[in-house]
From TrEMBL:
The keyword Signal applies. It comes from Rubinisphaera italica. This is Leupeptin-inactivating enzyme 1. GO terms for molecular function: metalloexopeptidase activity. InterPro entries: M28_fam, Peptidase_M28.
Length: 393
């Protein structure tokens, strides 16, 4: 009983701080109001709590209902049949021939007053499901991906409560079944609430608030900007925070990692935001106490600003089929290799892993010394960085 009282008191304090920060942030802002740290913390600690039991199956429905409740409080518009925020994802027919439900996507719409292109949509998305509970315990999934859901909810709140102009509608989406071959986002894009051709840009976040391999890298990796015309340039002008450095990477470098995949397959410009896979990925110790809440809030604020910048462009981003990589992306790979070298002993890397990292670093340095990046270099970087992620982290 005492623990329950203390928990309730802590939640009350966080909610009070959240509201207070939001009120002070609103005064005199011409850009989206900064996302409060206390609000981010409250969402993550709630979704990664014992009560939500790892957010799989029935507890994934709890998470979907939690997100729905947040959207209702913001007075967002439902988009599915019968004025619902929930999209049922059907499961296989059971032995009795009855239909089943595999999961629940959540989607809400916001059309700003005076929008010039109200029937064109931007998407801000994450996935709320995780691995659930097993005999060994709960897979809390704070980084993967309560952090991303917190971003979606708080970006929605920031945009709605800001006195800003936005010329396109925004869909806020929380997918289920990402951990099951992206089935939730695959179902959503196969049965969209708006025509896919009207979706102009998508931001998907997965794993915010830790860092790649727990290396001391204060960066958020933004992957896929190269596929949208003008997106790289727009990102370069967006202030995130002094403590968070946005780093552009080719989506080819990381492979298919999250729910942006079905949109990429349909050639819809996108951006995948992540601070990288921590060493607690898909373990029971991916807990809320390890999250850098300030970092998640700063990234969320930056992404809200990015949505405004792209949403107010006269011409929406268009798909680029075969983009070239940028030297800054090679520099990012080089910096990751250097950080791995510094932590090789701590990580107990094998001789083969060390050799692989050294080879990657050496080739990256050589590529940067050249005047141009050849198609062969680009193919090599793509293969190598994907191997690096799977063999070292």
């Amino acid at each position: 009983m005492k623990q329950n009282i203390l928990y309730s008191f802590r939640v009350l304090v966080l909610i009070t701080l959240c509201v207070t920060e939001q009120v002070f942030a609103q005064a005199g802002e011409e850009t989206p109001v900064p996302v409060p740290v206390a609000c981010v913390r409250r969402h993550i600690e709630t979704l990664a709590s014992d009560e939500f039991a790892g957010r799989s199956g029935a507890s994934a429905l709890m998470a979907a209902e939690y997100v729905t409740d947040q959207f209702e409080k913001l007075k967002l518009q439902p988009v599915f049949a019968e004025e619902s925020f929930l999209q049922v994802i059907p499961g296989p027919v059971d032995e009795a021939g009855n239909s089943t439900t595999a999961g629940w996507n959540v989607t809400a719409r916001w059309t700003p007053a005076g929008a010039q292109f109200p029937n064109e949509y931007l998407i801000v998305a994450a996935h709320h499901d995780h691995l659930g509970s097993r005999k060994s315990g709960i897979y809390y999934g704070a980084d993967d991906n309560a952090s991303g859901v917190a971003m979606v909810v708080e970006v929605a709140k920031s945009l709605i409560r800001s006195d800003i102009k936005l010329d396109r509608s925004v869909l806020f989406v929380s997918f289920d079944l990402e951990e099951h071959l992206l089935f939730g986002s695959r179902w959503w894009t196969a049965h969209p609430p708006v025509p896919l051709e009207d979706i102009k840009f998508v931001i998907v976040a997965d794993m915010l608030g830790r860092s790649l391999g727990d290396l001391p890298i204060d960066s958020v990796f933004l992957c896929g900007a190269e596929h949208g015309s003008g997106v790289r340039k727009t990102v370069s002008k967006i202030p995130f925070a002094d403590t968070v450095q946005p780093v552009l990477l080719s989506d080819d470098f990381v492979g298919l990692r999250s729910d942006y995949g079905p949109f990429r397959d349909r050639k819809i410009p996108f951006l995948f935001a992540s601070t990288g896979q921590s060493r607690d990925y898909h373990t029971m110790v991916d807990t809320a106490d390890k999250i850098d809440f300030e970092q998640v809030a700063a990234i969320s604020t930056g992404l809200a600003r990015l949505i405004v910048a792209i949403g107010n462009q006269q011409k929406a981003p268009e798909w680029i089929e075969s983009p070239e990589i940028d030297p800054s992306e090679v520099k990012a790979i080089l910096e990751i290799c250097r950080q791995i070298d510094e932590h090789a002993v701590e990580w107990e890397l094998t001789a083969i892993q060390k050799f692989f990292v050294d080879q990657t670093r050496s080739r990256a340095e050589r590529i940067l010394s050249q005047k141009t990046i050849t198609p062969e270099d680009q193919r090599w970087l793509t293969r190598t960085t994907q191997m690096l992620l799977f063999t070292v982290f």
